[in-house]
Design goal:
alpha+beta, 2 domains, 37% helix, 20% strand
Length: 312
């Protein structure tokens, strides 16, 4: 059974987008619901409504299954540290979901730290035995429904990260997502080959990735439109890959030739699911997130241009 290391790349990814409270956390670490009895406050009869637990554990194999294939993924210490930093740098402290399906309000990450000492770390006080480098978090729950109906009843037991690398296992059963899952696998393969620690070629030179940002304003506008439409349906459409791609395009960020290839491949095949008159359809929204027809025309032209230069 293969083991896949997942990596956050500076040029392609924005990191973790949200923290989800779930019944079965993939990292197999339950959180602790902190109450006033543990830490005395002025109002000792009121609950603190804080959940503390592991957000990401380094080098811990996490089982995954895709179709008939079974495999494990894991994150290195460096990736865990990077993910924890990017999550805060991107201002995602208050982004949370329930079971990776429903966006919820009132949950905020109020403490974030990496375990540096297993004996003296704050987590040890509550009986947690976590490896060095674990990303820990304390989440304040100002949501009565989540606290009373899910935390108190034990329906949710731990945290799960949600971002580019989140494997939601169950996706909306629309044909459009088959393409996005395939694209995600291709992207992981490319990133693993480019953003590994060993980036040196013969002669000690670092390999640099060429990127391009000369796509027209129509691509940016379509991506922005896709983001707006997706927000109106609670961001239920597209995988995290599609959502991240839309952010990149909307901001005019540079993308690699490999990404342009995937853009053309995806848009040319998924065009049949795009319906300009149905702004709520996931097929339409996902297509726009990737830049829509403007991106299809540009990516086709750009690839011909790059291939022409290569052959000259």
């Amino acid at each position: 059974m293969r083991i896949v290391e997942l990596i956050l790349g500076d040029d392609e990814l924005t990191g973790i987008e949200a923290i989800s409270v779930v019944e079965n956390p993939a990292i197999e670490e339950d959180f602790i619901a902190l109450k006033s009895e543990e830490i005395k406050l002025a109002e000792v009869n009121k609950e603190k409504r804080i959940l503390m637990g592991a957000l990401l554990v380094p080098n811990k194999p996490i089982y995954r299954r895709k179709g008939e294939e079974e495999y494990y993924i894991y994150f290195s210490k460096d990736t865990v540290e990077k993910a924890s930093q990017l999550y805060l740098m991107n201002g995602n402290q208050s982004k949370a979901t329930l079971e990776h399906q429903h966006t919820i309000n009132g949950l905020t990450l109020v403490e974030s730290w990496l375990v540096e000492d297993k004996v003296h770390d704050k987590s040890a006080k509550y009986g947690l035995n976590l490896p060095i480098g674990t990303w820990m978090g304390a989440v304040k729950v100002n949501n009565d429904e989540i606290w009373n109906n899910y935390v108190k009843t034990g329906k949710v037991k731990g945290f799960s990260i949600e971002g580019y690398f989140a494997d939601k296992m169950e996706r909306p059963k629309e044909p459009i997502n088959d393409f996005e899952e395939e694209e995600a696998e291709e992207m992981l393969s490319v990133i693993r080959s480019i953003v590994k620690e060993d980036k040196r070629l013969k002669g000690g030179k670092r390999r640099e990735l060429e990127t391009y940002s000369d796509y027209p304003s129509g691509v940016k506008n379509n991506a922005k439109r896709g983001i707006e439409l997706n927000e109106k349906v609670n961001n239920k459409c597209a995988t995290q890959v599609g959502k991240i791609r839309a952010k990149q395009l909307a901001q005019g960020k540079a993308i690699s030739k490999e990404t342009i290839k995937r853009m053309y491949s995806y848009l040319s095949r998924a065009e049949e699911y795009y319906d300009e008159g149905d702004s709520k359809a996931c097929g339409t929204i996902s297509y726009l997130l990737w830049g829509g027809k403007a991106a299809l025309r540009w990516s086709e032209s750009k690839l011909k241009e790059l291939d022409g230069k290569k052959n000259n």
